[in-house]
């Protein structure tokens, strides 16, 4: 990657929402190539986009869950489900976000996502 960007604000937001343990693990296992990507993700996704006005962070995390469910990203979705709970989202809101995604992308994906969400909620 070229250019400089400030990932500190985004990393702080990411840690608050996703959990210090997860973010520390992501950074501690990142090699030099992955480090730049993680800094970019923290700066853009968590520092800029996640802190924009217009949608609450609860709505943003539910959108992330729906998108991840739609593409079948079960493991990443589990992290976002736990983050949604941290942000105050209910089990019903999480389930409804997945069902809404399933109405567009397929009920099979929604069923798999609900199973992953149940696993994550059991671990939360």
Automatic annotation (TrEMBL):
Identify the Pfam families for this entry.
Answer: CMD
Ranges for domain Carboxymuconolactone decarboxylase-like come to 36-118
GO molecular function per UniProt:
peroxiredoxin activity
Q: Which InterPro entries match?
A: 4CMD/NDH-1_regulator, AhpD-like, CMD-like
Top-rank taxon: Bacteria
The residues the entry assigns to the signal sequence are none
Q: What's the name of the protein?
A: Carboxymuconolactone decarboxylase-like domain-containing protein
Q: What is the lineage of its organism?
A: Bacteria, Pseudomonadati, Pseudomonadota, Alphaproteobacteria, Sphingomonadales
């Amino acid at each position: 990657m070229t250019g400089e960007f400030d990932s500190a604000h985004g990393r702080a937001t990411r840690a608050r929402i996703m959990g210090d343990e997860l973010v520390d693990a992501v950074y501690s296992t990142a090699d030099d190539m992955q480090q730049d990507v993680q800094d970019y993700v923290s700066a853009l996704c968590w520092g800029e986009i996640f802190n924009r006005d217009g949608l609450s962070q609860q709505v943003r995390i539910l959108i992330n869950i729906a998108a991840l469910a739609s593409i079948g990203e079960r493991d990443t979705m589990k992290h976002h489900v736990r983050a949604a709970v941290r942000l105050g989202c209910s089990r019903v809101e999480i389930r409804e976000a997945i069902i809404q995604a399933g109405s567009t992308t397929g009920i099979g994906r929604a069923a798999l996502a609900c199973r992953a969400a149940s696993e994550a909620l059991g671990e939360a």
